[in-house]
Amino acid sequence: MKLHDKIWLLKKDVGIDAEEMSKKLGISVTASKLLINRGIKTFEKAERFLNPRLEDLYNPFILENMDKAVLRVKEALESEDEIWIYGKYDVDGIMSISMLLFYFKSLGINANYYIPSDIVGEKHEINSKIINHIYSKKGSLIIGIDCIVQVEEINYAKSLGIDIILLDCDYEDNLPEDTIIINTKTNYYNYKYDILSSAGTTFKLISALNLSENSKYIYNNYLDMVALGTIADKVLIIGENRILVKYGLQMLFKTDKFGLRALLNICKSEDEEITVKKLIFILEQKLSKNILTEEIFLLINLLLSDDYNKAYKQVEKLYSNIERFELEKYDIKKCIDIDLELSVKEVNFELIEEIEKFKPFGPGNPKPIFLYRNLIVENFVFTGDNFKLIVQDESRIFDCIGHNLKKFIDKLNKKEKVDIVFYLEKKRFKGVETIQFNLHDLRRYDLSEYKNREILNQFYTSLSNIVYDFKFYIDKNQLGRIFDYRNIKNRHYLIDKKLSKGSNLILVNTFNALLELLFYLSDIGRYDIDDLLSFNFANDNLSNNIVVNPILNKIDLKKFENVIIYDIPLNRERFEYILCCGKNIYLLYNQFDIASTKKMLYNLIPDRSDLVKVYKCLKKVLGKSSELLFNDIYKEAELNLSKVKLCMDILERAGLIKIYECNNKVNLEILPPPSEKIDIESTDLYKRAYDLKEKFEKYKNIAFANNVLKT
């Protein structure tokens, strides 16, 4: 059953005590739940995650062949051999090449590099043509980064006296045993959870070459480019990658590299995360498949530039040739993975500060997405692609901002109820900090949103049936056990606990409550809603039933271990019948149900003008065709299904029409006008319908009193 255009999927509670972790770490229970949902389930792991340290980086020599690579590079430096770097023309590759060039330059060595270009048909592989080119330039060592290499090329290079070190490369299994390969993807034992980018692997080589030197110097000079390469490569931002990116971004925003500073200035934004995304976007756009080798050289020179003015002019030229950057904050995938559902008490600046400690975000550690249910819309404004929304819960006001939510233009109404998924942020305006919800998606409860969905038709069809004869016997000596949860705010939580064991009958009267319940069950993703849901009657073959608009005297309440009154009953008689016929009765209804039920009864029970409208509509439609479609009737009358159906039944009992069949197709006859004037409001069915409304008006005044439980 599809209720919304996107699936919201709330992460499952894994059952670990978040309160205990909260106390140990000195953080909120909400932040502890976020950690647990990310697989961080022990104090030690949580401590390392929240407080990553450069000291926790692995020794580079645990990587297989690192000692051999260091030895060969140092031999080349001592012998003043020609060193060539071969890499890929993506952001990760460019950063890796630049890091090695920067390193060798710091030693007074001008290393060479070669980057293949698709525009001349080259692939990312070290082939004989490239080896011959390097040999002609008297090269004796190739450091290949993220490329493809085969046995023939390795052997051919060796025959020419050229050694090859492979960093983060794809290669055949049968390469010569003495081939120097450094690859975290295959170094499973030591790097089980840490597949590094090419930039990360290159950094490991540079660190190993300088292990006896000042490590702070290495961090300050290379981590900025490591961070950009790692983010662009979209590897998991966990373990070592998390440390490299976290500290690398800190270094980036105080970098002394003129090329990076120029790029940062052209991409400047109040949000550092957006600045980095812009910077990477510009480089990715430039490093497209049709890039010329000369343009790659310009990019490398930009990153290594020692003149800020020249670097800035290069960046301006680079930026002017790229289409205007449009940051898409939200993707359009059909499934939204939600970290946690929040309540009003959990939304505070403390939580925002704790979320800051979860940075850097990326694959494996996405920015937390939250769900908030049953918010009331206070105001909203659409400006271009931007959407500003003000919502309220328990008299607390929240500002929301959204993008790509044009579908809600001309739909939202003030005071309607919505659910939202969002990023929790802090905004500053005129020196004042406030909490802001950055909207990812929004879900409505208003009936207009569902007018073309089958579930609303099913609801209205079943709704009209509750008006008919309802006679039952109440034995007040058979009162069941009552569990009073009236007016609890998050009543849907109890449903999951009950459905997971025993047999349960959940009774629902209003469309609003039905949506609330179905949204929740859909969000937690543990139940087949289509199997659980029925209208008017229970499915005797199932242990769990959600029955909408129940015809109570047609349901064996004692068959179920638990009967759950989800929203407010329509009258005292129905309420007492449930209490006396059920075993264990759970009361979950609340004050908010009153408005929904009154609206439902208004939508069901016709007044005289509705009856006149339907009668005229029937005459009009019948004049066009002898066979009527029920949908045509209610669309012509501009009333809902249940009201049209009830109007037709009242008109029949008043002797104005004769209905022979009333399913999807209607076969009826307009009867001759009666000789005497009909008082249609005195018909038994009309009286019964109004009696339903009047009884609810009386019952709602006592529904929340303690003595109502004493039948």
Automatic annotation (TrEMBL):
GO terms for molecular function: exonuclease activity. Gene3D superfamilies: 3.90.1640.30. Keywords: Exonuclease, Hydrolase, Nuclease. The keyword Hydrolase applies. The keyword Nuclease applies. Residues 83-230 form the DDH domain. It comes from the Bacteria. Residues 338-441 form the RecJ OB domain. SUPFAM superfamilies: DHH phosphoesterases. InterPro entries: DDH_dom, DHH_sf, RecJ_OB, SSDNA_exonuclease_RecJ. Belongs to the RecJ family. This is Uncharacterized protein. It comes from Caminicella sporogenes DSM 14501. The lineage of its organism: Bacteria, Bacillati, Bacillota, Clostridia, Peptostreptococcales.
